[in-house]
Request: fold
Amino acid sequence: MIFCSNCGQQVIEKVPAGDSRPRHVCESCQTIHYQNPKIVAGCIPIQEDRLLLCRRAIEPRFGLWTLPAGFMENGESTEQAAARETMEEACAEVKDLTLYGVFSIPHISQVYMMFRANLANGHFGPGAESLEVRLFEEHEIPWDQLAFPVVRLTLERYFSDLPGRTFPVHVENIIRPPRRMP
Amino acid sequence: MIFCSNCGQQVIEKVPAGDSRPRHVCESCQTIHYQNPKIVAGCIPIQEDRLLLCRRAIEPRFGLWTLPAGFMENGESTEQAAARETMEEACAEVKDLTLYGVFSIPHISQVYMMFRANLANGHFGPGAESLEVRLFEEHEIPWDQLAFPVVRLTLERYFSDLPGRTFPVHVENIIRPPRRMP
Reply:
């Protein structure tokens, strides 16, 4: 942020009175511009013993496989966001959404909220952001071609819980891996 | 949003190509400014059979009672945000945080994430945003002086679950009550 979205003047970065963190502050109109984490809501769409993955048609991670998920919009509930993203990316209607994972990713200021869900009917297909959408049995999961660490984590927890048919809500953090030395 | 925070020119509201919702778009530098829900993280701080509430020293709802909670910051996990807010508002250290409520409030684009937590030691007191902080047994809860519907909902679920000592994660939505006819 360079300019104040309220008055158009340049903002500065400073700690406002009574605050403890630097913010973008407009000294012209006194607006403090807070920036906060975003929620990414998505589903594990399930049909019998298979689950649905999407192959990304967009960057980042073009061509890799992901669970349908995306940024929650204003005016939605978390379940509505997860179901909408599943419709947009996989053309799939889901039902029986149950919260399964709350995964904070502090270094990119995102919180993933992943729901287990059943496919409502047999229909699915690639949305605008997907090259391909298909159902996978566990032994077919393309573990070495997953788009994001949070997708791997969600799938690992799911297949670990599956034999016991008990699915607690997992609340975990994904920490940036340390950079390798050159 | 009136001005582009990237280049300072006036933005317009329009549906970008490939999108389905109106956004603030800068036609000068082509930036699309997305606006997304915010996470409010907080705790039910517990000590034996009592829980901690804060009486608000700020608007809105000055003078009414609330659970310690506030906007999650960039770079935090949800638990870190809940513990930080409890320290800021109630000068109380908490431990053993366990996710208890995920409450979407679509009409104000907020998602509350409430954790059960134990007070780590006997210490607590009013932070800058609180007039007063105290522990309440169930029969002492000031039900008619609670600051927000989400505080009531959290406490109702908690005291309903308490006898069975089983605390599932509650995922619910708080819908704006219909306006009364004049």
